[in-house]
Specification:
With 243 residues, the chain is of the alpha/beta class. It has a single domain, classed as Rossmann fold (3-Layer(aba) Sandwich). The strands form two sheets. An eight-stranded mixed sheet has the order 3-2-1-4-5-10-9-8, with helices on both faces. The relative contact order is 0.14.
């Protein structure tokens, strides 16, 4: 019965999206070649497509020298971060527990297949062995989406963040059915507020993940966008206290 219900839900979402896509206008291209490429990529609806441009813009503002991406999968965020890294002259470190070694050919891409918490705990020595400065300017987290694992990631990686760091978390509003910015729908899953609860623990605030939020908390400027499974961006405003 559950399988039949999921199939019917999938068919309903596909029919709705076909109607939306038939009626929607093509978004304008920007003058920046990276923005044009990212917008073109985002036209193919995924669980993160509505946030690709935001990842680039927020990362660029940090003037990064080192970018760390936790969670690669099909390379949607990697597509953005390799352009950000090339524009900034930065190194890009990507980590996943499955083999994603063919996702990027950026010459300063450092691929690591392992549990990201383990790498975070030994990141300083890992960087020293590769001649990298272990100060992370852009951190992106898009892995298991579970509360305990996200807390462990924050504990392992936040001590490596630089004074100008930006930390971005996807799936802070995970839903079985989610809406993209262009009006189309996608099928996801309910992670029982795993990621957003972990951020509430760090920030000491309550977040209504269904609504946009802009505030300052615990040394961070917080921006939360509930669209497309949710993206929450933290920018340092002061000490940026960590747990």
């Amino acid at each position: 019965m559950g399988r039949i219900t999921n199939n019917l839900l999938d068919l309903g979402v596909r029919a709705y999206n076909a109607l939306v896509e038939w009626r929607r206008a093509t978004p304008p291209d920007g003058p920046d070649p990276d923005i044009r490429a990212i917008r073109a990529r985002a036209r193919v609806g995924t669980d993160i497509s509505s946030h690709l441009e935001a990842l680039y813009v927020a990362g660029l503002a940090a003037h990064p020298r080192l970018i760390v991406e936790l969670g690669v999968r099909g390379g949607e965020s990697t597509f953005v971060f390799e352009r950000l890294a090339r524009r900034s002259g930065a190194d890009l470190v990507s980590v996943d527990i499955v083999d994603c070694s063919t996702v990027s050919r950026y010459e300063r891409w450092h691929w690591q297949q392992e549990d990201d918490v383990g790498l975070g705990r030994r990141f300083r020595s890992w960087c020293e062995a590769r001649g990298l400065e272990p100060r992370v300017d852009v951190l992106f987290v898009d892995t298991s989406h579970l509360y305990d694992h996200t807390c462990a990631e924050i504990d392992a990686w936040f001590p490596h963040l630089s004074a100008r760091a930006v930390a971005m978390f996807h799936d802070t509003n995970a839903r079985k059915v989610f809406r993209r910015r262009d009006g189309t729908l996608g099928l996801g899953w309910n992670n029982h507020r795993g990621v957003v609860r972990a951020l509430e623990r760090v920030l000491g605030i309550r977040i209504d993940e269904r609504r946009p939020l802009t505030c300052d908390a615990a040394g961070w400027h917080v921006e939360h966008d509930p669209t497309c499974n949710g993206l929450t961006i933290l920018r340092r405003t002061g000490d940026g206290q960590v747990p």
